[in-house]
């Protein structure tokens, strides 16, 4: 399902310049500009979820930008997949209503669940320990919070317990402090919703509705190739995913925007190495697009002649820039603006010494700081045994990876809006990524031995 966009695409995307335009050349888009367009193309209620029409529009935008920057563009779509599509039709959208006073709570559907009829189901909400046949179990926010710094994420196990006790539904508590709902995949046989509801819902009769179905889906990958100069044969991969659960400004609209900004800078600077730009779909649903792409790179023909063995390093932008609002908001309320640097960011890297030092020093030179963390430590702590990002397949293959990643309270919630971003930091991350890729060209970086991966 691969389609190559030839130079005609770039020509078709260009507008004939008038004399006035010739006198005032257009400014190259910043990462913030790209982010604004990505968000415009992915409105509610499905936003930019894997395999959706909005995701296809964003992929088309990314392909057009790379074509204008003179990359060879490959639309490497991945078929044969499925996704859970929530039914947002009139009278079908997710809801939780307290029957005593008909109060409706802010509610979102969970994913990969059983579907209710349009009339919903009625049940009494019980604590996990008290659930019996016909009840709906209550999963507290502390067990379900999506923030990746929270290692107690236990919602799937809690819901499995509800099922084992004969429960007929689950109410997963949202973030009541910030009035946020969030995404959660449960792989369960009962309906479940995420609702901004207090603990006092326990003991109350409710009507719960969550409708949807598993539908066929295509992951929309976009690949851009800038061939290495004469005499060189290696590539550095610049990657990030485009899909997101809600508006997903930081995870990962900002990462995709940063990739497009860095790709533009790299085409202009002509680094002494090939550049392989990869923007993936399906990351949030299990690294689906990147898994297929990595397999193609490892095949005899590679991807348009580029093979995994030719990758010198990977620069991964996934949730790489975000405001730490739990710190920044109090500062802003007093000072009227953010403090210069506040981000709960980790600088994750493969156990390759030259790459590690180059990564940290290059990003620091652009004002991008974070806690240095080896990939082994990251996988054992925040990753739960894996990378939890598209770079996983490349790190597993021994390709050195550099990945700045920021933690923030709005992660995977409907609060991941442009307000969760620091535009200056986002542009600094993009500029640092381009600088890093250029420096990798001449750095003595080799594959990571298997025992260190």
What does this structure look like?
- The chain has a 9-stranded mixed beta sheet with strand order 1-2-13-15-14-16-19-17-18, with helices on both faces. An 8-stranded mixed beta sheet has the order 5-4-11-7-8-9-10-6. Strands 3-12 form a two-stranded antiparallel sheet.
- α7 (249-269) crosses α13.
- The longest helix is centred in the middle third of the chain and has 21 residues, at 249-269.
- The chain folds into 2 domains: 2-83 and 216-452, Zn peptidases (Aminopeptidase); 88-210, Glucose Oxidase, domain 1.
- It has helices at 7-13, 19-23, 31-40, 53-68, 141-144, 155-164, 249-269, 288-297, 325-335, 353-365, 375-380, 392-396, 423-440; strands spanning 2-5, 72-76, 78-86, 95-98, 103-105, 107-109, 121-127, 136-139, 169-173, 192-195, 205-209, 212-219, 222-226, 235-241, 274-280, 311-316, 344-349, 371-374, 401-407.
- By secondary structure, it is α/β, with parallel strands linked by helices.
- The chain contains 13 helices and 19 strands.
- β4 and β5 (103-105) form a beta hairpin.
- 50% of the residues are buried.
